[in-house]
Design brief:
By secondary structure, the protein is mostly beta strands. About 10% of the residues lie in helices and about 40% in strands.
């Protein structure tokens, strides 16, 4: 048994899990081309370079916000984790072009539900980066946030574990 497994057993219900919302390659936020994400100004998390243009619910909870341009989502888990998923850099300038939200503000979600579709090739062809920061926006509410994922990740795979104070 390693330290992470022991910590999980000891903390039990205080541990909250965020599962991968997509298939892709995981990188530390420090690799982001956006200084706001790179410096973790919005919170801790990961960066994913997607293999497909789908975003799935990373936990049970609700949709706090679907941005009008459909390039980003704000989610809250049933146990209080606030999460932002932001598709691409400066993609707000696309005004919703190449994005299709499958959810609306206030909607209940279950882990694995399809939340958003986007066209990777078209977004890149318009000159935008396709990195996707996934950020715990209420990082300060927790004693520890551990990134579990490294390298290739698949939908619903354990990605981030969060420990309550």
């Amino acid at each position: 048994m390693n330290f992470r497994e022991l910590k999980r057993i000891v903390l039990g219900s205080k541990a909250k899990m965020v599962y991968s919302p997509m298939n892709g390659e995981v990188f530390p936020l420090a690799k982001s081309k956006d200084p706001v994400h790179r410096k973790k100004m919005l919170g801790k998390g990961v960066l994913i370079i997607p293999r497909e243009g789908n975003v799935f619910a990373p936990f049970d909870g609700k949709v706090e916000m679907v941005y009008e341009t459909q390039h980003a989502l704000g989610l809250v888990s049933d146990d209080g984790v606030e999460l932002m998923i932001h598709v691409g850099l400066d993609t707000v300038k696309l005004n919703g072009k190449h994005f299709k939200a499958h959810v609306k503000n206030g909607q209940k979600i279950n882990k694995g539900d399809l939340l958003l579709e986007f066209d990777i090739e078209k977004i890149i062809s318009e000159g935008y980066e396709i990195e996707i920061p996934i950020i715990i926006t209420n990082t300060a509410d927790y004693s520890s946030i551990e990134i579990l994922a490294k390298g290739t990740i698949s939908i619903n795979e354990e990605m981030i574990i969060i420990y309550s104070q």
